[in-house]
């Protein structure tokens, strides 16, 4: 096919541009395709990971319900090691901490709660872990460390529970007037319709109200 002079000049210019920039264009396209493929692959990987983690968590829940501490430890360990960024790992650590403590292994329970505090981004989950850790420290008569946990900033929804446990720690350490003040604060913060208020009120009454 014959081209006139102007068309031929345009074709030659395009050829020259492609010769100079073609490799860059192809590389850019290849990179784009690789990125898209990578994103799709990552999503598929995440979906697979979530499915595997969910399956393990079901095993853990069943073991916890049947009080099979060894199986709880095994499932929780696999979740924490293989799926540490999932919420399943966090909740597995909380379940395992409870199972370990009930079986007399306070050291492992505390380690798992500390893991939650260091690896979870949810303030609410950290508040739960810190509250449980403080309870274990109270049982160990480590009052200073227990108070340190309870005096850490936490969500308003936990104010009543933190104040109540703080009252327990203060009472156990012989600080009755401070414990009384903490129980009063707990009553102010706990939902008026909650049956839990009755327990706090009993503690307060025991100190003379």
UniProtKB/TrEMBL annotation:
Query: Which residue numbers delimit the Ancillary SecYEG translocon subunit/Cell division coordinator CpoB TPR domain?
Result: 15-208
Query: What are the annotated GO cellular component locations?
Result: plasma membrane
Note the topology in the membrane.
Single-pass type II membrane protein
Report the transmembrane regions from the record: 25-42
Q: Name one GO molecular function term.
A: protein-containing complex binding
- Does the keyword Chaperone feature in the UniProt annotation? yes
Q: Pfam families of this UniProt entry?
A: TPR_21 (PF09976)
> Mainly localized where?
membrane
Question: Which locations, inside or outside the cell, does it occupy?
Answer: Cell membrane
Record carries keyword Acyltransferase:
no
Q: What UniProt keywords are attached to this protein's entry?
A: Cell membrane, Chaperone, Membrane, Transmembrane, Transmembrane helix
Q: Which residues form a coiled coil?
A: none
PANTHER family per the UniProt record, alphabetical: ANCILLARY SECYEG TRANSLOCON SUBUNIT (PTHR38035:SF1), UPF0070 PROTEIN YFGM (PTHR38035)
The UniProt entry's sequence similarity note says: Belongs to the YfgM family.
Identify this protein by name: Ancillary SecYEG translocon subunit
